[in-house]
C-alpha cells in the first residue's frame, strides 16, 4: 500500500515522521461517536438527495451502474450563495513563514469541539489511478453538507474492490500517511472573515472551515496529493495531457498548463474535426515521473465549467452533479438546468469519465511537448522557447489573468496581469522543486517547450481555432518557426494578423514592460516569504538576457 493508515505502537508518537500536532488534532475527529462511516457511492447519493436545498433534476445520469450509482440516479444541482469560487486568501500552509501552527491548531481544536453535537460523516477515496501512484484520502464533514461529500466521491475514485486490490499492490511510499481532511462549512470566526483553509502538507492533513464552495475540497485534497507526488519523484501538474496517435504509428504526447479558464480543458478535449485518434489522460490533475517521464491521472472525472455548454449541448449527457447554475422547466415540464453562467460566474459540473471514451489513467510514453498557457497581450499566439533554463523559468513566470474560479480579497484588481508559477496556486513546497523537475524534463528528456497565448495579442482576441491550429502543426511536424527579433532562444510562428511588429514603438514598450514584469517577479522570490520560493540565479539571468537582447 502506498500510504499508511494503521501503525504499530512503536510507530506512533512525537518521533514519527507521519504524526504532528496538526495531523493528530485533525485525525482524532474521525473516531468520535458522532461519526458515521459512508462506504459506498450509492449511500452517498441517497444522502445527497436529502441535503437541504439540493435540486433533483429530471436529467438521468448516463450509464449510472458503470459509475457506481443506482439505476434511477439523477443529476443533482446545489447552489451556494454569493461565493462561487476558491478563496486563496484563506489558505495557511504549515512551514511557510508567518504561519503560526500552534495558534491555528488551537482554533481547529475549538472547531472540532464545537462540532461534537453534529452528526459527522467519514468517507474515503483514492487519489491516483495507477499502481505507480495511489494515495488514500479520508474526508470528514457535517450533516447538512452531504452533497459536498457526494461530489468529493464523484470527483476522486470512490472505494471499490477493483481499486482496493490495485491500491494493495501499489508502489510503496516511505513515511507517507493517508490524507485526512476535516471540513465544516458552517464555522465562523471573526479573525477569518473569508474562512480558513489550513494545510500541513508534510503530514498529509488539512482543515477547511467556513467555506462551502466544493472547489475548496477538490483542490484542497489535490494540494496534499501533489505534495506527496513532489516528495516521491514526480512533477505535480495542474493542466491537461493527451496523446495524438498518428496514422504512421507515431505517438505525440502534449501537456498544457494553465489556470481555470485558460483553455486547458478545451485543448485537452478538442476533437480536431476527427483528424486524429486522440487519447486523453486528464484535463486538470496529473503527475509526470522524473524517472521515466510517464504520466498518471489523479482523478477519474472532470470538474468542468458550464459556461460554454448550453442545455442543448450533447456534452451535458455526461453530467453527474452541478454547482452554481440555474434551474427551470422545459416544454415537457421537466426540471432542467440553466447554464452559461447566467446565474453567476464559474458555474461548475462534475462530468463522468464516460465523457472521454478515449480516456486512459496512465500514459507510458514520455511527454514530447509542454505548452505554458498564458494570457499576456505582448505574446503572439505561439512562441517556441529553447534551452532548459529559459523553458522552465517561463513556466515559473507564467503570466495570466484572474478568472471567475477565484474569490478575490478586497482591493485585488481582477483584470491585472498576474503570475502563477506552473499554473499551480496549490503548491505547498518551495518553488525550486518544480523549477528543477521541469528543467530536467526539458534538458534530460528533450521535451520541447512552447508558450500559447490564449487571450489577446495586443487588443485582438486569439481564436481557439488559431490555438488548435498551432498545436496541430507541431504534432504533424510541419510547424515553421522563425527567429523573433534579436532573441536567441525565442522563435515565433508567423500567423496572419498576429505577427509582432518589433518596429512599433507602442508594441516594443508593451513587450519590454511584460518581460520586465517577469524579471521582477522572479527577483522578488528572493525575499517573498523570506525566500521560501527563491530560484537559482540562472533563472533570473535567463529572463534578464531577453531584456538585453530586446534593446539591441
Write structural notes for this entry.
This protein is an alpha+beta fold. It has three domains: 9-37 and 80-232, 3-Layer(aba) Sandwich (Phosphoenolpyruvate Carboxykinase, domain 1); 54-78 and 302-351, no CATH class; 236-300 and 360-501, Phosphoenolpyruvate Carboxykinase, domain 3 (Alpha-Beta Complex), CATH 3.90.228.20. It has 13 helices and 30 strands. Strands 11, 12, 13, 14, 15, 21, 22, 23, 26, 29 and 30 form an eleven-stranded mixed beta sheet that branches. Strands 1, 4, 5, 6, 7, 8, 9 and 10 form an eight-stranded mixed beta sheet that branches. Strands 2-3-17-20-16 form a five-stranded mixed beta sheet, covered by helices on one side. α1 (21-28) runs parallel beside α4 (101-114) and α12 runs antiparallel to α13. The mean pLDDT is 94.
- Structural Rg: 23 Å
User: Could you give a short account of the major beta sheet?
Assistant: 11 strands, mixed
Identify the CATH architecture of the largest domain.
Answer: Alpha-Beta Complex
Give the end-to-end Cα distance, rounded to a whole number of Å.
Answer: 58 Å
Query: Which CATH C-level class of the largest domain is it?
Result: Alpha Beta
Per DSSP E runs of 2 or more residues, the count of β-strands stands at 30
**Number of separate domains:** 3
**How confident is the prediction overall: mean pLDDT?**
94
CATH topology of the largest domain: Phosphoenolpyruvate Carboxykinase, domain 3
Low-confidence stretches: none
Strand content: 25-35%
> Given the structure, what is the number of helices?
13
Instruction: Summarize the amount of helix as a percent range.
Output: 25-40%
Tell me, briefly, the overall form: globular
Structural class: alpha+beta
Amino acid at each position: 500500500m502506498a500510504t499508511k493508515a494503521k501503525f504499530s505502537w512503536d510507530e506512533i508518537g512525537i518521533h514519527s515522521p507521519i504524526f504532528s500536532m496538526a495531523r493528530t488534532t485533525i485525525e482524532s475527529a474521525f473516531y468520535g461517536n458522532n461519526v458515521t462511516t459512508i462506504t459506498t457511492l450509492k449511500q452517498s447519493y441517497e444522502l445527497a438527495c436529502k441535503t437541504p436545498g439540493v435540486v433533483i433534476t429530471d436529467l438521468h445520469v448516463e450509464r449510472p451502474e458503470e459509475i457506481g450509482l443506482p439505476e434511477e440516479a439523477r443529476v443533482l444541482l446545489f447552489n451556494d450563495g454569493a461565493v462561487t469560487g476558491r478563496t486563496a486568501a484563506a489558505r495557511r500552509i504549515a512551514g511557510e513563514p508567518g504561519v503560526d501552527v500552534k495558534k491555528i491548531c488551537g482554533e481547529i481544536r475549538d472547531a472540532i469541539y464545537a462540532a461534537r453535537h453534529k452528526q459527522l460523516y467519514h468517507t474515503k477515496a483514492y487519489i491516483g489511478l495507477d499502481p505507480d501512484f495511489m494515495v488514500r484520502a479520508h474526508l470528514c464533514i457535517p450533516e447538512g453538507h452531504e452533497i459536498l461529500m457526494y461530489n468529493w466521491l464523484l470527483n476522486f475514485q470512490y472505494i471499490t474492490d477493483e481499486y482496493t486490490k490495485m491500491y494493495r499492490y501499489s508502489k510503496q511510499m516511505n513515511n507517507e500517511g493517508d490524507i485526512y481532511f476535516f471540513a465544516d462549512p458552517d464555522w465562523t470566526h471573526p479573525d477569518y472573515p473569508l474562512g480558513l483553509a489550513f494545510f500541513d502538507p508534510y503530514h498529509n492533513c488539512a482543515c477547511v472551515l467556513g467555506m462551502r464552495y466544493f472547489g475548496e475540497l477538490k483542490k484542497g485534497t489535490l494540494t496534499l496529493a501533489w505534495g506527496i507526488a513532489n516528495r516521491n519523484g514526480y512533477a505535480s501538474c495542474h493542466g491537461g495531457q493527451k496523446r495524438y496517435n498518428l496514422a504512421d504509428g507515431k505517438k505525440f504526447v502534449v501537456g498544457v498548463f494553465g489556470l481555470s479558464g485558460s483553455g486547458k480543458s478545451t485543448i485537452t478535449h478538442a476533437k480536431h474535426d476527427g483528424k486524429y485518434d486522440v487519447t486523453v489522460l486528464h484535463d486538470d490533475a496529473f503527475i509526470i515521473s522524473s524517472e521515466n517521464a510517464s504520466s498518471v491521472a489523479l482523478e477519474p472525472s472532470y470538474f468542468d465549467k458550464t459556461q460554454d455548454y448550453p442545455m442543448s449541448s450533447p456534452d451535458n449527457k455526461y453530467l453527474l452533479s452541478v454547482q452554481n447554475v440555474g434551474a427551470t422547466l422545459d416544454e415537457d415540464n421537466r426540471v432542467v438546468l440553466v447554464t452559461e453562467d447566467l446565474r453567476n460566474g464559474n458555474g461548475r459540473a462534475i462530468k463522468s469519465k464516460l465523457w472521454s471514451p478515449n480516456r486512459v489513467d496512465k500514459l507510458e510514453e514520455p511527454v514530447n511537448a509542454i505548452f505554458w498557457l498564458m494570457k499576456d497581450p505582448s505574446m503572439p499566439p505561439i512562441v517556441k522557447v529553447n534551452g532548459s533554463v529559459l523553458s522552465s523559468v517561463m513556466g515559473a513566470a507564467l503570466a495570466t489573468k484572474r478568472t471567475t474560479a477565484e474569490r478575490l480579497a478586497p482591493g485585488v484588481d481582477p483584470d491585472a496581469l498576474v503570475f502563477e508559477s506552473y499554473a499551480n496556486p496549490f503548491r505547498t513546497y518551495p518553488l525550486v522543486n518544480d523549477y528543477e523537475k521541469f528543467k530536467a524534463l526539458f534538458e534530460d528528456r528533450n521535451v520541447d517547450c512552447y508558450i500559447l497565448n490564449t487571450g489577446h495579442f495586443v487588443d485582438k482576441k486569439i481564436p481557439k481555432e488559431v490555438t488548435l491550429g498551432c498545436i496541430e502543426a507541431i504534432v504533424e511536424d510541419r510547424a515553421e518557426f522563425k527567429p523573433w527579433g534579436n532573441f536567441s532562444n525565442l522563435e515565433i510562428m508567423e500567423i496572419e494578423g498576429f505577427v509582432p511588429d518589433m518596429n512599433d514603438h507602442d508594441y516594443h514598450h508593451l513587450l519590454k514592460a511584460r518581460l520586465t514584469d517577469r524579471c521582477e517577479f522572479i527577483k522578488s522570490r528572493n525575499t517573498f516569504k523570506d525566500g521560501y520560493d527563491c530560484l537559482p540565479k540562472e533563472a533570473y539571468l535567463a529572463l534578464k538576457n531577453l531584456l538585453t537582447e530586446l534593446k539591441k
